[in-house]
Amino acid sequence: MSRLLVTGGAGFIGSNFVHHVMEHSDDEVVVLDKMTYAGNAASLEGLPESRFTFVRGDICDRELVDRLVSGVDAVVHFAAESHNDNSLANPEPFITTNLYGTFALLEAVRKHDVRYHHISTDEVYGDLELDDPEKFHETTPYKPSSPYSASKAGSDLLVRAWARSFGVRATLSNCSNNYGPRQHVEKFIPRQITNVIDGIRPKLYGQGLNVRDWIHVDDHNAAVLLILERGEIGQTYLIGANGEQDNKTVIEKILTLMGQPADAYDHVNDRPGHDMRYAIDASRLREELGWEPTYKDFDAGLAATVEWYRANEGWWRPQKAAVEAKYAAQGQ
Ligand code: NAD
Ligand code: TDX
């Protein structure tokens, strides 16, 4: 049994990770979360008190981080500013949380010699052409496009430097686009599902030819737990489930699943600098650690996600109006 510090555990992937750990291990979890607009206390309801502690605080608070890290066996670092569109409107919190916050954690795990796993994104590699036969792999050069992806790329490089220079026992994972329960309604899939529930037409940026490599959040988290337990120290693992879909197709699938005409959506302003395509080669994870995704059928995973948002309106309703007002102000 281990004691884990999970940063960002009230967010989308972090909260699903905490539930996954409770079900698939006997580890104890301490969540450290600032509860920004993206943190949702309801995502952590019902966890066993004997194995779960919640601390509200900032990963940039070095004293707090030092104290919490000193009491655990491992840190799993999910906390971040995570939305590309927000990073275009106001990059500053991305620099503070994603870079300085990661620095604060690295200094603490270095001091207390604590195992560290760093959660990152495929966006650090920039984008691919639609017809490129290559996918991203562990040695693809970094070429981030947005303030968000640049801040994540910088945080990855800090981890690698702390591992090499100070011997921090770190692993890294770069995952593709996640979908599933408890994702904030600012993100593409939940935004469109909740729009349809509310009778608002879904909003497609530009022509919607951009491709994302979708993976169910539970498959991402199963890989993270496996890397934490059995990954090679110093190694980077790419996580992806061969889930490439263009945005237009995803919107059409959501509309069809929800009983609407497939063309009942609007084209809105494109995202500046919009990455065209992401695609992951997860061979190392599959071959070295034996990981396999459970959700191999995107349509079935999407249908289950639609059902979750239908059944959990109380979870997302408080955020919905403000998110749509913000998008409307930027023509999206
Ligand atoms: P999210 O925005 O849903 O959650 C982020 C959480 O971090 C929130 O609970 C928020 O309150 C917390 N947080 C933000 N700043 C903080 C700070 N300074 N101190 C403490 N807590 C803070 O994000 P997500 O989609 O769950 O992403 C989690 C991680 O996974 C991020 O590192 C992101 O880069 C990475 N990632 C996300 C995806 C994806 O598709 N969503 C894909 C690959 C990697
Ligand atoms: O309303 C929309 N319409 C639309 O067409 C929104 C919100 C998005 N889009 C497009 C933009 C992207 O091509 O859909 C695609 C997915 O958009 P997001 O959900 O904003 O995700 P993305 O920018 O691809 O980044 C996500 O995956 C990688 C996460 O937000 C990141 O945290 C993660 O690193």
Automatic annotation (TrEMBL):
GO terms for molecular function: dTDP-glucose 4,6-dehydratase activity. Its cofactor is NAD(+). It is an enzyme of class 4 (lyase). SUPFAM superfamilies: NAD(P)-binding Rossmann-fold domains. Keywords: Lyase, NAD. Pfam families: GDP_Man_Dehyd. It comes from the Bacteria. Residues 5-296 form the NAD(P)-binding domain. PANTHER family: DTDP-D-GLUCOSE 4,6-DEHYDRATASE-RELATED. Belongs to the NAD(P)-dependent epimerase/dehydratase family. dTDP-glucose dehydratase subfamily. This is dTDP-glucose 4,6-dehydratase.
